[in-house]
Amino acid sequence: MRRRLYFILPDLASAIGTANDLLLARVEDRHMHFLGPRGMSLGDLHEASFLQKSDLRHSLQLGAGLGVIGGLAFGVYLMMTPMGEFQFGLGTVILCALAGAMFGSWAATMIGLSTPNSHLKPYAKEIEAGHILLMVDVPPTRVEEIQRLVGQRHPEATDRGVDPVIPAFP
């Protein structure tokens, strides 16, 4: 399990210097994610992926959960109210729950793709002002070391805290 550290960097030069120092500290490039204002070129820096920018993961979980509940309710309704000669059993309930989960996941994902990541809302004003957000995923044993390194080598960087657990699909 990794922890996600957040830093606000004032400009691209600072972001490149921070990335280089983290690489020298043996933090892999794939564990550094940079997010700048819309339209800003980050050069060779590892830009945050679409999954990190959108609320896809949260909406997928929510949609699947609500879909299962709706599917179960519909399956129980079919089981309790026979339609003519048809008698629905437990298999119908299970199939309705699976279909509900699939439909709920699909529908919620369509919404989640266009919704900004709720974890990044506290940084939105600073990013719009031209700053760059750095998200670094490190093992829990290296959190203090990396915070200290960035604080000493880049005093212009603002330490914005730690997420206790990063998503399963960072």
Give the topology.
Elements: E1 3-9, H1 12-24, E2 32-35, H2 50-53, H3 56-80, H4 90-112, H5 124-128, E3 132-138, H6 143-153, E4 158-163
Antiparallel strand pairs: 1-3, 1-4, 2-3
Helix pairs in contact: 3-4
Features:
alpha+beta; 48% helix; elongated; 4-stranded antiparallel β-sheet; 170 residues
Strand order of the largest sheet: 2-3-1-4
Task: Tally the helices.
Answer: 6
The biggest sheet amounts to: 4 strands, antiparallel
Percentage beta strand: 5-15%
Structural class: alpha+beta
**What is the C-alpha radius of gyration, as a whole number of Å?**
22 Å
Descriptive notes:
25% of the residues are buried. The protein is 48% helix and 14% strand. It has helices spanning 12-24, 50-53, 56-80, 90-112, 124-128, 143-153, and strands spanning 3-9, 32-35, 132-138, 158-163. It has 2 domains: 3-53 and 119-131 and 147-163, no CATH class; 56-112, no CATH class. Helix 3 (56-80) packs antiparallel against helix 4 (90-112). The chain has a 4-stranded antiparallel beta sheet. It is built from 6 helices and 4 strands, in the order βαβααααβαβ. It has 170 residues and is an alpha+beta fold. The mean pLDDT is 86.
